[in-house]
Amino acid sequence: MRVSLQSLARHVDLGDTPVARLEELLPMLGLEVESVSSFGLAPIPHVVVGEILAFEKHPKADRLSVCRVDVGDGAPRQIVCGARNFKAGDRVPVALPGAVLPGNLEIKVGRLRDVDSHGMLCSAGELGLPAGEDGLLILTPRQPALGAPLHSLFPPPDTVLEIAVTANRGDCLGLRGVARELAAALGLPLKPLAPAAPAGASAQPSPGDPFGFVRVASPACALYTLRGFRGAKVGPSPEWMRRDLEAAGLRPVNNVVDITNWVMVQTGQPLHAFDAAKVAGGVEVRPARDGERLALLDGREVALDASVCVIADTARPLVVAGVMGGADSGVTSGTTDLLLESAWFVPGDVRRAARRLGVSTDSSLRFARDVDPAGVELAARLAADLLAELAGARPTGPAVAVGQAPRGDRRIHLPSGFVAARLGSPAPDAGVAEVLRRIGFAVAPAEGGLDVTVPSFRSDVGRPIDLVEEFVRIHGTGQVPVGRPVAPTPSEPEAPAAALVREVALRLAGSGHAECCHYSLRDRAELVRTLGEGAADTLALGNPLTADQTHLRASLLPGLALALQLNLSVHAEPSRLFETGTVFRPGADGQVREYLAVAAVALAEPARRSWLARPAPDLFSAKRLVTDLALAAGIAASRLSWVPAASGLWQAGHAAELADRGRAALGGCGLLDLRWTRGLDIRGPVVAAEILLPRAALAARKPARLEPFSNQPPVARDIALVVPLAVGAGEVLERLRQAAAKAAGKDIALESVTCFDVFAGDGLPEGARSLAFEITLRHAARTLAEAEVAAVLDQVALAAGKSGWTVRR
Amino acid sequence: MATMQEQLDRALAEAEQAAASVRTRAELEALKARLVGPNGSLTAVSKSMGALPKEERPEAGKRVNAARQRAEALLAALLARVEEAELAAALGPAPDPTLPSPDAPAGTLHPLTRTRERVLATFRKLGFVVAEGPEVETEWHCFDALNTPADHPARDMQDTLYLPASFRSADAPRKGDEALLLRTHTSSVQVRTMLSRKPPLRIVAPGRCFRRDAVDATHSANFHQVEGLWVDRSVTLADLRGVLDFFVRETFGPEAETRLRPSFFPFTEPSFEMDIRSPGLGRLSGRWLEVLGCGLVDPKVLAACDLDPGEWSGLAFGLGLERITMLVHGIDDIRHLYANDLRFLRQLA
Predict the structure, then answer these.
(1) Do B167 and A592 form a contact (C-beta atoms < 8 A)?
(2) CB contact, 8 Å: B161 with chain A?
(3) Considering B61, B91, B121, which residue would you say is the last residue of a domain?
(4) Could you report the predicted ipTM of this complex, rounded to two decimals?
(5) Residue A336: how many CA atoms within 13 Å on its side-chain side?
(6) pLDDT greater than 70 at residue A292
(7) Contacts with B279 (C-beta within 8 Å, 6 or more apart), sequence order
(8) Label partner for A727 (CA 20 to 30 A): which of A12, A131, A319, A601?
């Protein structure tokens, strides 16, 4: 909303309130000032229109030209100029010696690199006008008189504030609304608006009206009024109106159209004028019919359907209600008889229609924000006055009105103390009443409080709490006291994910990982890699914006792989990266679950050489990471069951994934698919780890309870087995662990079973390998006897034998 | 025949000569045996004492003892030398401590993580606890319960990312045929919290949000908010200022000024934007800058969450972690936060 201060003065006399004060004040009323610009031009003595008769290159400076300039006094001057956008014969602004340009730049006769210069040719910016294209302000198309004072070509100076109006304040999409706010804040009176055209309306057209009927057959229109005029003389608008429209950012068209726009700018009520000769029979507000087409004012032809409300005559739609008029029913230079529409359309319907047609007009913007129902008549009467005055149009009868104003003035009971209770500081009724009256609310004392009558232009105020906002806004938010820091409420449990995310981030950063942050929305190819062709589209969005952000992410690893690629390409020497965040996975039940994912990647071949090589990370360092992360989330390693990786993220044979056992966690460890990472220009393998913890199952970790531990010496024994290659070492270890634990019984603790040797080759059968384990036992209260240890080992050997594994002696 | 003293001196001299070439513990043991072992040269001299006349024996005894002491000192020194050599061998050559460590340096936390943890720590001091909600959310939790009418522009397909009708979420089950969407703000966590717990409540909810925006210097396909909600029997605007002024001072320093600028959100009434002005923000110093939206919880929201607006009142606020991070660190383009360029991340670690 562009607010010209000169236009604003029609509604409130701001006196000499400085612009800076308004810039401070408006935002505190809820009207954000987005920019301040100047409009028009103040007189600057000695700046006149001149013509460049001829020019040549400066003898000593390639970028300068020496111009001969005529300013109409018969004595062409020599002026040196640095611009290049002119040609001989162009008329341009000339600042003669003695002129003082904005920024206190005083023009004198001077020498530029040994060439005399008797003034300066000016750009728009140098004159304080909005800067346009680079170079001189070319005046040629305006055909100005030589020597004319420059400011005579421009409207008088004005300041225009560009104001952002929030969705609830449709009343401030007219100058009067803004003026009302300023008047209230500054304690100034609002100037009266008193149209001469009579109020009141009839339900039916008068005999002289240039229309036969007005019908409303759409719920999108609550109130429709139409006035007829004859004898209009269409022509240009007067200068003041053109100026006001241009200051408001509108293009003057002709006096009739300009009057409708000018009234809209003042009141916020959009109006529409038809050429009566082009309207057959009368007008009807109705849903468009499927297949109807309408050529719009902006030159497009659109296909309509029943979701769009139109104003139609007996033959065809003329206007998309509240949005845009048709090209062939508007007012032109030949128009003499007029129909003037002023109406109230349902905001949501106008918004949807505008969206559907892909336009936002001054009209749709205002209707969508809910115009003042009482303004429907007021605006039409103001326009009727101006049509008579500026176009000689005679009304043909009273307005015809169909429907009801959807909202009138409303009364709210505001209990005493209500405002104070929300404010946290005293707010006596009298003070509240005074503030509310300033913004046009009527306030009367009532039993136990105040009765506040809210005028119809405030669609957003309907409850006592809304009056609190009005009071605070006008009284000043700076008056709200700053409460003292508050005592904690009784302890509430925290979301377990918050603590976990913090802990794993610190751990991973502490172990050399740099934290990354990628977008959640990914392309389809990435999802196919992660989930496979079949499942990828279970995570597709319904209305993606761009082709590369069509799916929800199912893993953090593709993002991290791309981050490795990027950082290698810019020689930022990546080594280890990690990320935490939500990922999505479809389950076997068809439902998508949200997981808290933690993922890390590491380059197996360092990006930079070093004087000392360190062991490269591998599948087992990644497995350790996943196991540790699981433990941090309260999931013991024994609950994780590892199977060969099947997802396209991983390199077959060199990675493992977690089987979804009891929904404890998903994830994987090992090498990322080597063809993929090579395709990303990553030289060596990428070692990766990822764990996905179902958000719904995350629980706060309880403090561990101390278990007593033995101070007796441990006893360790080794056992080696020959096992078929197809049997996983983890499976063997688990079998031995169970057998040993069972054999050890209650008093002997099985402290650990570890694998310390893996061997295949000489001396072993084909298709088998030797696995050696160390079993450590400890008694709770005494030194273990050799016989006790031997008994446990015998049971372990027996169990191994039952599984078909030979014990090596 | 040499005197006893000469014999002692010779034995010691020979041992001292041999000691120069002793390098290992075995050589040391061999020398020790030659000198003081059962067949050692000193042992032989002391054995010969028995043949001396009785009156010479005390004097001879003294001489032998003195020689033994010298021998022991020699052997102890040799042992120290051998042990030193053994240790040196075990340690290997001395490294050059001026060489750089070949290990990777400590990693870095993302600036958004640092900001999030700082913000959460600030509000924890005021008794707020962290709450969470799902990123895929129902239309009811994201809009209806938050007093956002069905025809509100925020709900338009053009501004909000929706999931297809076939999508089913275990974390946000649909009621009826309502739509599922990617939450546009963390305010949905207000609703989930009020429905699942009884007031008094004081929560902060960090989380990722989505809008259907093209990515540019100030827009991102996803972004992060921290939502705050405090519901109790009489929560006031003074409380709102108290909480948020504290937050601003903790985040931007004691010299930062604040102002509450009236604004509009469907779920708060009254609604404000909080602006800050601070001298420590580089190019943006001394200008009023919007940092968060806030207000008192609209009675309709309380009612939608089965709380009686006559009994309960609340304040709510929502701040953008990207915005705060960019202001604190002087970042001018939001895309830096999602580019994952280590040259950026290491600077802000």
Answers:
(1) yes
(2) yes
(3) B91
(4) 0.89
(5) 2
(6) yes
(7) B255, B285, B286
(8) A601
